[in-house]
Each structure stands twice: as structure tokens, then as C-alpha cells.
Amino acid sequence: MFTKMKNIDTAFRYVRGFTMLVIAGCVVICCYTLYKSFESVTLMQNKVYVLAAGKALEAYASERKDNVEVEARDHVKTFHQFFFTLDPDDKVIKTNITKALYLADDSAKRIYDDLKENSFYSGIISGNISQTIQVDSIRVDVKDYPYRFTCFARQHIIRTTSILKRNLITQGSLRNVSRSDNNPHGFLIERFSTIENKDLTVENRK
Question: Residues 149, 72: contact at Cβ < 8 Å?
């Protein structure tokens, strides 16, 4: 009888030990599952998906210093496209110039005022002239602040009878400002000036 009780007691200890082992295993698995879940959620929160042309593109957050040169070049390019793209339409000219002047200081405003005073924009409208710009390259020195830049571009001036191609080289510096809808890169062009703007070729239109 004592042997039977001893066997029962031993079996009970085995069952209890096995049960405790299973419970401990379940606790470890649950903790690991929770840890991996929180890790996955944190990882997903660091990702941003942008919908473009019907496709979801993954975007990664990064420090501004990692992309300052790229953003600076795009800022300069955007300014030139707005400032030098003109059509014989007063509203189009005002819209483009307004967008451009949000990206630069009064050095660009003075150039605009001088051109306006010399009836440059009136001549564009009355002569049915269109002007476009093609930016070839932009050099930005990000070693020293404010960042100096030099822009190399070509202008195409389309008249009724001809197309004039001009070489355009400009320079200036970039200062950090707050980002906004009107200035998404957070730069302001200062001391903007034209180094060279000379005729290259003239093509007669048929």
C-alpha cells in the first residue's frame, strides 16, 4: 500500500513538474511574441508610403544633413524654372514670378523690378514670345554656410519667326529658413546674380 502511495506521489510530482514546464514555455513564447509584435509595430511606424501614379512607394525618414545637397540643387532648379519660364500671358507671368520670389530674397525681386520697369514683360506679351529654360547642372558648396551655388542653364526664346538659344550662368547663396507650402525645401536664395547671358544660336522658324 505504501509503495502504491509512493508511486502516486512520484507520478504527481512528475505531472506537476511537466505542467510547470509547459506553463513556463507558454509564458516564454507569449513574451517573445509580444516583443516581436512591438518591434514590428515600431518598424512599421518608421516607414511612410507615398501613393504616386497608382503605385505605393516606400519613403524613408532621414536627417536633413544627409540630403542637403540634393535639396539645395532642387531648390535652385525650381527657382530658375519659375523665374525664367515665361509665356505671353500676364497671369502666367505673375503666377510664376510670385512662386519664384517665395524662394529668394530681394536680390531676385530687384532683378524682377528692373525688368518690369524696362518693359521686358510687356514685350513678352505684346510680341507673343515664350521663354523656357533647361538647367544643365548646378554646383552647390555645402562645406561652408551659407551654401554658395552656381547654375548652368540654357534659355530658349521662342518668337514668331525664330528660336533664340542663350547660355545662362547664375550664382548666389542659400540660407536655411522654415519650410512651408510655398518653400518646401526650406532654403532662401540670397545675393542672386547673373554671371553670363549670351546668345548661342538663332534658328528660323518655318
Answer: yes
